[in-house]
Amino acid sequence: MEAYIVDAARTAGGKREGALKNWHPADLGAAVLNALVERTGVDPAAIDDVIVGCVGQIGEQSFHIGRNMVMASKLPDSVPAVSIDRQCGSSQQSVHFAAQAVMSGTQDMVIAAGVESMTRVPMGLPVILPMQAGIGTGPWPQSIKDRHGVTEFTQFRGAEMMAKKYGFGREDCDAFALESHRKAAAATQAGAFESEIVPLPVNGDMHRTDEGIRYDASLEGLGGLKTLVPDGVITAGNASQICDGASGVLIVNERALKAHNLTPLARIDHLTVTAGDPVIMLDEPIRATRVALDRSGRSMSELDLYEVNEAFAPVPLAWLQQLEADPLRLNVHGGAIALGHPLGASGAKLMATLVHALSRHGKRFGLQTMCEGGGIANVTIVEALN
């Protein structure tokens, strides 16, 4: 069987302590679940499963955030859920698991979703709290540290290693960041995100615009920011923004299309996940894309749009360089540097942007990939159908 995307939606990003700070993560995710049901008209009781990606599964995101999202939503309690963690690729993996389920025929209609409130559950909290309480020695035993010759694994070091490995300087990274803001601003002003964003009530108004976009961004402003490490290239301006948000994708097979009279937005063409060096950590999307192209029989020339998560500017820059890809097809509506990176929600968020962008621009094939903690990368290729 084939896997089809019937709809994909996301909240507009909220800055840290911004518009979404008072939204409990379960309610934030539930709003997207409700929107998918309302927008498609499906019987919520017919949903076989909800697969939710979330990285910080502690505090308000603990005790099974996926199930809590369902209980907070208008879906009946008979709909099951599961919470997964593949770091930044968590909800892209949700998409993969959902697609595999409906392709196998064991389930017909699955929602792949993600949520992360980085205001209410700060990044790194699952590691920080036990260490502060004197519980345990952290996630990496000495055996892992000895094997890889490090005392810790950090994405910031990985980003600097990537910049050095592929020859990108501070100016390259800042120029890329500026372009991300410019594209996101233009897309917002043109209404490009309206079809994917779920408006949320905030202080008597509706939150429907990504808060992180800097409409007045300049090279001068970006150049004035301090690097995160001495003599480095990474700054807060050329790295992804901390963000609150949720996202979801309704994925079905042919049987569900017919039974519920649904019209799909896209067909899932290919799924790949690979893993590599956990120290540099962030360059695995390059190899994963090559593997995906080889397995799918697709070529870069066939791909009309790409969504490569802008965790740090060197990541998409290196991906473009090594795959000899067309920069005009990359993150055409901006990326995480401007729009934010709500960790566990980013995978389905990027998929929402990709399928709606394909439709808006009249394009056919799109590819999504992102770097993930531990040196992992997912790649998803989709074919737009309308």
From TrEMBL:
Domain of life: Bacteria
Protein name per its UniProtKB record: Acetyl-CoA C-acetyltransferase
Signal as UniProt keyword: no
Assigned protein family: Belongs to the thiolase-like superfamily. Thiolase family.
NCBIfam families referenced in this protein's UniProt entry, alphabetically: AcCoA-C-Actrans (TIGR01930), PRK06504.1 (NF005077)
Any Pfam family: Thiolase_N
Family annotation (SUPFAM superfamilies): Thiolase-like
Source species of the chain: Sphingomonas telluris
Membrane spanning residue stretches: none
Thiolase C-terminal domain: residues covered: 262-383
Keywords of the record: Acyltransferase, Transferase
Residue ranges constituting the Thiolase N-terminal domain according to the UniProt record: 4-254
Matches recorded under InterPro entries: Thiolase, Thiolase-like, Thiolase_C, Thiolase_CS, Thiolase_N
